[in-house]
Amino acid sequence: MKTDILIVGSGCAGIYMALNLPKDKNILMITKDKVERSDSFLAQGGMCVLKSPEDYESYYNDTMKAGHYENNPEAVEVMIKESPELLEDLIDCGVRFARKENGELDYTREGAHSHNRIVYHKDITGKEITSKLYEKCQTLENVTIKEYWTMLDLICDGNKCVGAVVQKDDGSLDTIMADYVVLACGGIGGIYRHSTNYRHLTGDGVATALRNHVEVENVNYVQIHPTTFYSDEEKERSFLISESVRGEGAELYNNENKRFTNELLPRDILTAKIKEEMKKENSKHVWLSMRPIDETELKEHFPNIVKHCKEHGFDVPSQMIPVVPAQHYFMGGIKVNLNSKTSMEKLYAVGETACNGVHGRNRLASNSLLESMIFAKRAARDIAKNYIKEEKTEIEDFDFKPYKDIVNWNKENKKLIKDEIAREDEIQRNK
Q1: What are the C-alpha distances in Å from 237 to residues 39, 195, 197, 230?
Q2: Concatenated DSSP letters of 191-245
Q3: What is d(CA 365, CA 225) in angstroms, rounded to the nearest whole number?
Q4: What is the 3-state secondary structure (H, E, C) of 30-47?
Q5: Which residues does 286 contact at the CB level (< 8 Å), separation at least 6?
Q6: pLDDT of 237
Q7: Are 108 and 118 in contact (CB under 8 A)?
Q8: Residue 366 near residue 118 (C-beta atoms within 8 A)
Q9: Low pLDDT (below 50) residues in the chain
Q10: Counting Cβ atoms within 10 Å, is residue 304 exposed (0-12), middle (13-18) or buried (19+)?
Q11: 3-state class percentages of the chain: helix first, strand second, coil last, to nearest 5
């Protein structure tokens, strides 16, 4: 097969990139499941935005502090300063952010934020944004989307990416030659037992980069979300209780019905506080009370969370719910520059699979959707500006033997990532 640009992944980063690439280029987007089963559709809380020039310094400092000052300052500056343009673009695409009675945008707040600067749509902001972008993407004649197609490997010519090996929805193997390849294939939650991510998001982009000697960075920077709904049941993923719930006033209690921490601490610090309390009490979870939140506000802002709690036997806000930390987000990934270009020619990476350093060691709440789309658009512009047609358009006698045993191939991918995490952990311990 042959295309101009191959995008691997169908979250907000991949879709928004397709929307910003030149319309005269043929774009093939592949995704290993349904388009709607990406983590972008699961994002609850909202999207940060620079709502006024006066908030820049505060927003910048909040992002750096949450990231333990290991962030790339230039990337943080780019993300914040380009956020108003993205907000207007999303509104033009029909995204319905919450508004006050006078029509102005309503802003909420989450942990580690000094001010309210997060735009949102109920408690399904990711679904609202990504579905609207997907609808627009479906109208483009130059974009073809293939569901249940899985990238297995990159095809490289020295240090240049010229395509990818894929398994199609019918189980057959094929090669896709492309002028440019963009990895937008999400995080690594699928390799963890407890995660808020979809199980099929197993770090394919990072594993492929490791296989092909593409630079990666901070692969051991994995964020644990402090509050997911605790259940004894076996389930596909942990249900997230959005940070916005605590931002609106929800409180954490131990088994003795006593508050034990500041609920708006950065995620990694709050997670440590919760785990410490669980260890002290020898319990499997702590409790979250939504009583401080106005009941009307609770039902209007968090209808899906209220519904989930009720389905599992908890009537909020009158009853507290059990919560426990779970793997949530990946701050490390494939190392990229400010235009999302990797160390390999003609290969870009965007979204959670990429690492431009904007999050540092710990992501500030609601910076993920923003970061994914800001740097996806920059990648699209960079490709358009520097487009070079690839001379190699086919490979004779391609050897598919290494990819025949898909189960073993996936196991090896997971091992590659786990080994790299362990290696980087060891390096940091020695420091």
Answers
A1: 11, 6, 6, 11
A2: GSSSBSS-TT---HHHHHHHHTT--EE-TT-EEEEEEEE--SS--SSPPB--HHH
A3: 10
A4: EECCCCCCCHHHHCCCCE
A5: 252, 253, 254, 255, 260, 274, 277, 278, 322, 323, 324
A6: 86
A7: yes
A8: yes
A9: none
A10: middle
A11: 35, 20, 45
Q: Is 257 exposed, middle or buried (0-12, 13-18, 19+ CB in 10 A)?
A: exposed
Alpha carbon of 51 to those of 58, 81, 135: distances in Å?
11, 10, 27
The pLDDT assigned to 393 comes to: 78
The answer to whether 298 and 317 are in contact (CB under 8 A) is yes
Contacts of 216 (CB under 8 A, 6+ apart): 206, 209, 210, 332, 333, 334, 335, 355, 420
Four-point Cα dihedral 255, 45, 116, 331, nearest 10: 90
Peptide bond into 317 cis (omega under 30): yes
This prediction's pTM: 0.91
HSE (CB half, 13 Å, CA atoms) of 400? 12
Distance, in Å, from the CA atom of 62 to the CA atom of 290, rounded to the nearest integer, reads 25
The secondary structure element, H or E, covering residue 247 is helix 243-247
The residues facing 321 across adjacent strands are 288
Taking only the tens place, the pLDDT of each residue in 121-153 is 999 999 999 999 999 999 999 999 999 999 999
Q: Give the span between the Cα atoms of 1 and 399, in whole angstroms.
A: 15
Tokens of 430: 């020695």
Specify the 3-state DSSP secondary structure of 20. helix
Where in the sequence numbering do the catalytic residues fall?
Answer: 267
Q: How far apart are CA 301 and CA 421, in angstroms?
A: 37
Backbone φ and ψ for 311, nearest 5 degrees, come out as -65, -20
Rounded to whole angstroms, the Cα distance separating 344 from 337 reads 12
Q: What residues pair up with 217 in beta bridges, in sequence order? A: 333
Q: How many CB atoms lie within 10 A of CB 175?
A: 18
One-character DSSP codes across 99-110: B-TTSPBP-B--
